[in-house]
Design goal:
The chain has four helices and nine strands. With 165 residues, it is of the alpha+beta class. It has a single domain, classed as 3-Layer(aba) Sandwich (Aminopeptidase), CATH 3.40.630.30. The strands form two sheets. Strands 1, 2, 3, 4, 5, 6 and 7 form a seven-stranded mixed sheet that branches. The protein has a two-stranded antiparallel sheet with strand order 8-9. The longest helix is centred in the middle third of the chain and has 16 residues.
Length: 165
């Protein structure tokens, strides 16, 4: 695991990825997300999201994803964000749909888990699609659960924020 983290940090140094760790107010790590394989020339990146088991299905994943998509489109000026998920992961499929991702294809039997091969669903969202979906999603999410980027995060770096612009 430490070798993986070291390689991710090394990639970050050459502007190919940005990793973030979600923590509770007391500093407990509860999830990780990133923009990986950032390609400024073609305007795209890959969005992985990992949530610790006790924190799943509480709205953390959708907020982390929304914040990373905002970062990709507003700050990095990318055009497309892609991700993939196992075809048997119903919760992730629902989250991805709420975020406005569209299925682009299926990688047949590309994930080995529990002694069997599973399909991976390939999805992406374009900047225009996100802009159409973002405001509705932000008003739909319960403001009682808020994710902030950094200890001194401005309203612009909170999900959902009171300012839905």
């Amino acid at each position: 695991m430490s070798e993986l983290v070291e390689s991710l940090v090394a990639d970050q140094k050459i502007d190919k990825c940005r990793w973030f760790i979600a923590e509770t107010e007391d500093g407990t790590a509860v999830g990780m997300t990133a923009l990986e394989s950032i390609n400024m020339m073609h305007g795209n990146a890959i969005l992985p999201v990992f949530i610790a088991e006790p924190w799943r299905r509480c709205g953390l994943g959708i907020r982390m994803s929304a914040m990373m998509i905002d970062l990709a489109f507003k700050q990095l000026r990318l055009h497309r964000v892609a991700t993939l998920y196992r075809s048997d992961n119903v919760a992730t499929a629902a989250m991805i749909n709420r975020l406005g991702f569209k299925q682009e294809g299926v990688s047949k039997q590309a994930w080995f888990n529990g002694g069997k091969y599973l399909d991976l669903v390939n999805v992406a969202v374009l900047v225009g699609e996100w802009e159409l979906n973002r405001l509705a999603l932000q008003t739909e999410l319960d403001p009682a659960v808020t994710l902030k980027l950094g200890s001194r995060a401005s309203e612009a770096w909170c999900w959902p924020s009171k300012n839905a612009s």
